[in-house]
Design the sequence.
């Protein structure tokens, strides 16, 4: 049946309105970052005369925190994928006893409130000397990235045709070679999906950063913004400029990786 002419126009209008409402905070954040220092409410709806002093102040005060977040996030992504990829492959392909029990345990870890994990980690980190360290934050943030990555990659690896793996084994490839040269390339979309969400988890983390860092030596950007507001209440342009700069890496990564997130796991293996 043909759709009646003009029926989609109201839906399009409603969609545009909803999109504008959702993006308005982002627009106001950018607009406020380009206003002169002072009360943001006095700024106009559009920065006809943009002032970049807020970005200069943000780079001076928060540049180190941005680098800290980048180091912790990339470390968490590398650690999570390095641990989750072989674990997911073993759970997906090897007939191991207790696989369902292991998967149930992984799902349970996703249900534990972060504040509970944080309190336990603080006590352990205090004894191990991992407070105020990059390694400590990387390991803490990986507690969310590893279980999620295992669940995502296992489902993708299960969908890889067994014939592809058997053909590699017939050619003389061992289990490690099959995993490195066949399974990982075929699971590229799963790896990118897991890496993307692990990046977002870690980049936006606030609770671990607040609890496991007590000095300014290692301070992610989320904690920097939180403490920056209290120190510069009247410099909202610098606060918003910091928020804009903190949003750029995640936004760029989402745009670049969006086509891989919903893609099938076997498409890469078949095309190759």
Sequence:
């Amino acid at each position: 049946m043909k759709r009646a002419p003009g029926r989609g126009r109201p839906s399009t209008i409603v969609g545009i309105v909803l999109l504008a409402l959702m993006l308005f905070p982002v627009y106001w954040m950018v607009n406020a970052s380009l206003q002169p220092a002072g009360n943001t409410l006095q700024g106009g709806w559009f920065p006809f005369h943009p002032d970049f002093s807020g970005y200069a102040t943000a780079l001076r005060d928060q540049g180190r925190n941005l680098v800290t977040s980048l180091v912790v996030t990339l470390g968490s992504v590398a650690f999570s994928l390095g641990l989750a990829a072989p674990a997911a492959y073993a759970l997906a392909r090897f007939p191991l006893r207790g696989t369902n029990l292991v998967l149930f345990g992984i799902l349970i870890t996703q249900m534990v409130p972060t504040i509970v994990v944080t309190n336990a980690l603080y006590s352990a980190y205090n004894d191990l000397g991992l407070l105020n360290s990059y390694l400590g934050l990387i390991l803490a943030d990986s507690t969310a990235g590893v279980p999620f990555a295992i669940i995502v990659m296992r489902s993708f690896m299960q969908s890889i045709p067994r014939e592809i793996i058997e053909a590699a084994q017939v050619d003389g490839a061992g289990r490690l070679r099959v995993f490195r040269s066949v399974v990982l390339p075929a699971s590229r979309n799963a790896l990118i999906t897991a890496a993307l969400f692990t990046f977002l988890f870690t980049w936006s983390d606030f609770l671990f950063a607040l609890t496991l860092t007590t000095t300014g030596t290692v301070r992610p950007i989320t904690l920097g913004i939180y403490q920056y507001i209290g120190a510069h209440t009247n410099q909202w342009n610098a606060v918003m400029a910091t928020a804009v700069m903190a949003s750029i890496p995640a936004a760029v990564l989402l745009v670049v990786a969006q086509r891989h997130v919903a893609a099938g796991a076997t498409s890469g293996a078949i095309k190759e």
Summary: The chain has a mean pLDDT of 83. The first helix runs from residue 8 to 33. The domain at 29-34+50-271 is CATH 1.10.3720.10 (MetI-like fold). Residues 40 and 236 are 6 Å apart (CA to CA).
